[in-house]
Amino acid sequence: MIKKTKFIPGESYVPVSGKVYDHGEINNAIEAARDCWWTEGRFTKDFESQFKKFMGVRYVSLVNSGSSANLIALYSLTSKVFGKKALKKGDEFITAAVGFPTTVNPGIQFGLTPVFIDVDLKTLNMDVNQLEKSISRKTKLIMMAHTLGIPYDLEKVLYLVKKHDLWLIEDSCDGLGSKYDGKLVGTFGHIATYSFYPAHMITMGEGGAIITNNPYIHRSIRQFRDWGRDCWCDTGKDNTCGKRFGWKLGELPEGYDHKYIYSQIGFNVKLTDFQAAIGLAQLKKVQKFIEKRKENYKKLYSFFSRYPKYFSLIELSKKEDPCWFGFPLIVKKEAPFSRNELTEYLEKHHVGTRNVFAGNLLRHPAYLNLKKKRVIGDLKNADVIMNQAFWMGVFPGIESEQMRYVLTTLKNFLSNYS
Predict the structure, then answer these.
(1) d(Cα 47, Cα 25) in Å, to the nearest integer?
(2) Residue 70: burial class (beta carbons within 10 Å; 0-12, 13-18, 19+)
(3) pLDDT per position as a tens digit, 348-396
(4) Which residue spans of the chain are classified as CATH 3.40.640.10?
(5) Which CATH architecture has domain 23-283?
(6) Sheet hosting strand 167-171, strand order edge to edge
(7) Helix, strand, or coil (residue 331)
(8) Are residues 100 and 123 in contact, defined by beta-carbon separation less than 8 angstroms?
(9) Cα–Cα distance, 274 to 182 (Å, whole number)
């Protein structure tokens, strides 16, 4: 194992997130370096295969980040292969007002109109009661995240997806390992996305994945990911189709090299084999990581549940089983202290905190002058989260000693108000 730095209470920082690793990741990265291949290679293939098994899906495509995963997921649905269902400029997509920008940005960048709905304070996810009334004849897509790994009400969402013939992209970047009604989130929609940034359940440093069970969507994902090319050969492979010089597409001459025929206006967001090698070692630890996150969450829940006058905590149905990205809570208006007073105290005493991502996205400079948008209601709950909510770390690197210090620090702060 990698030698750990000694934790010194009051001096060492307890971060909200971070990477947990041993020699497995380092040895894999060294082996990838020695291969001298470096772009997508055998580690990428192995990771995709293992991730398919873990998720129970047919197709996995790796990319360089979770944000790129969202970008490619959305653009893949613009392909003409989907006929009338293909996304086109001016179509609407429904999303939550609270979240991370790159859940929303791809739709805006393509030219879709975002429809923002408020969230439920019990789960920090979109308010499903607002969902149906937000659907119009222009709506083609629902794209939103499972906030902090908390599954949204997939039963109601899927009912509306089928009723109105919509696409569903599950942004599961925070939700690897979370379950709804006993089934992994990310396996309900047409597409799901994942992030492997160090803050997430497993890491490649940077990295992401897109999953689907639909072969047409999978091919479109690969096209948009790989420069927009029509060819489906893996990196370093030629003539997978058996007729590399036998195609007649577009206005190109017959027999033009299929490796250089482009059917989409695409990107290049592939990752390296170094990243996949690190991720492969991480994937072997994912079940232990999930268990540790849940264990840390329970410790914080047990503490904060003693102060119902001060804090609102997450309330789950029996169907929701999160792999917690963090421990979220809302400081009540009637509390004798504010969110900022508490988080500033924690940070001053070397305990990390984070706001719930962007809070109300529509309050940010980038979105204030967004001309094409629809907003359902007054987003009052999004404002509550913006002003009063935050989250604390539960990641596997927070061990018993660190957690004891966190709880002691919280107790010291709250003793001033008992």
Answers:
(1) 13
(2) buried
(3) 999 999 999 999 999 999 999 999 999 999 999 999 999 999 999 999 9
(4) 23-283
(5) 3-Layer(aba) Sandwich (3.40)
(6) 59-63, 208-212, 191-195, 167-171, 139-145, 92-96, 113-117, 374-375
(7) strand
(8) no
(9) 33
Look at residue 127 and give its three-state secondary structure. Answer: coil
**Among candidates 29, 18, 38, which has minimal Cα distance to 281?**
29
Q: At 260, list the tokens.
A: 């250089």
CA–CA dist 191, 70 (Å, integer): 10
Order of strands, sheet of 179-180, starting from the edge strand that comes earlier in the sequence: 183-184, 179-180, 320-321
Q: What is the separation, in whole angstroms, between the first and last Cα of the chain?
A: 43
Global pTM exceeds 0.85: yes
Going by their DSSP bridges, the two strands 167-171 and 191-195 should be labelled as parallel
Active site residues: 200
What is the CATH number assigned to the segment(s) 286-417? 3.90.1150.10
Which tokens in the block code for residue 75?
């653009």
CA distance 120 to 111: 28
